[in-house]
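Listing 4. Sequential folding, example run.
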Amino acid sequence: MKSLPSLHELISLKGKHALITGSAAGIGKAIAHRFAEAGATLSLVDIDGDNLTRTEHELAESGTDVRSHVVDLSDKSAIDRLWANLGGNEPDILVNNAGIYPFKHFLDMGEPLYRQVMKANQDSVYWMCQLMIGKRMQLGGVIINIGSTDGIQPFKEELSHYSMSKAGVIALTKTLAKEYANHGFRVNAIVPGAIRPPDAKATSKQILKGKFGVLKTGLEYMHRLPVGRLGRSDEVARMALVLASDLSGYVYGAVIPVDGGFLSG
């Protein structure tokens, strides 16, 4: 057994550079903190400049080598500029986490909002993966795409556009895993279920303002959950760390639920 690498060696990201989108708050921020703890240098990407700066400062204070980039990922030209600015310092690990989920009834959906959701949630993942693979074809790397249980089993009403975009992310993950495994790319997806929002107070305020549909949906979802509670961002981050590290050296094209058992029902 002495020939086996130690657990510390397997989980370490020391010497690795990780780029994480949507990292100003929530799941993306939690992933950034876990990757930093494992020794990675970080490039943080988000459209929310204020919260992104706060996250960068938090990580820098802990000794992490971190840089932030304010980018609108729904804009293909902005994505191209991001990668151009990396200037030969492309990441070993790419986490596509950024996404939006505006509620809109299917029959009321207009083209502008539909296009915005698809660009932010699906197209951005496509272009980010294309640039990652294209620039690291001789080096390989790790790609982790964050999907959603809604992309497999839709639950909430007024999110057909969101479910469709996340189903596309899952399909892309499987396709890239098949096509580029032999080029050294390990591509997998995490599909979170209901994760406690970073600003739980905002949800409480919605309920107090009479938006009882939010409460009704929450209660129905909790009834469906075998574990009986919402997930935490860090619980998704822990799985991301497993997929980013050598702990998952033979894991390709996996779609891993972190959902409290939601998809088991």
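-- end of first protein; second protein begins --
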Amino acid sequence: MTELAEIEGARTRLRAPAGSRRAALRVALTLASAAALFVAWWLLSRHFADYILPSPASVWSSFRSSVERGVWTTEVGATLSHLGAGFGLVIVTGLPLGILLGRSWVAEALGRVPLIFLQTVPTIVLILLMQIFVGANESGVIAVVAASGFTYFTLNVIQGTKQIDHDLVEMGRAYGAGEAALVRSVYLPSVVPYFLAAARITIGVCWQVTLFAEYLLGTPGVGFQVSTEIKLLDTASVFAWGLSVVGLTLGVEYGIFRPVERFLLRSQRRER
């Protein structure tokens, strides 16, 4: 037994450096690709007028100006509030509804057509409808975001619920577990991987729809700022706002989504 423990310890020590080297190499490759993209942008910008392809220096100057004037913080805050409210509505409504529809074929048959209808309606039509019934305001933007992301999220949760091992459900019922206990102990843990996949897809959709809705409805936010700068032919500012969105997306992914993902999957990692 002692020899087996020593062998396992040696294997663990060997795996750790390999994993560290792989993580370091991944970071290095990511930075190298970003640097190559930056150099290509800088070289191309030297052959075009600033209003066609602005240089990195012009974009940085525009970004710094918007930050110093307080515009960047205000508009980014508005966009994040629209995104957060819309995405939150999707999670709060889509998770329980997806589990309900996935558990009952009758409920799924009744809800399938409305979900597909909502999924196939063009975003611009949704924006027009919200403008008519809700108004060209922040509530309209949030409603469009929620409506656009709801179907993607709910359909994934439905599919995940269908994949649950029904033997576990029957065993729980045999031991007298109620519906609330089954949902908490069987359905929710089993749906987590599908929930995370659905959330990642949905938040990408919500980002795009948020900016598009702000652009068309004229509400405060990054989308409206892009609309304004395009009309003024201020391409450097358009690039600055666009790269700000890229940075915010990466911040949400690595600062919020991935820590939540690690937290939700911690039990599955322990089992391995």
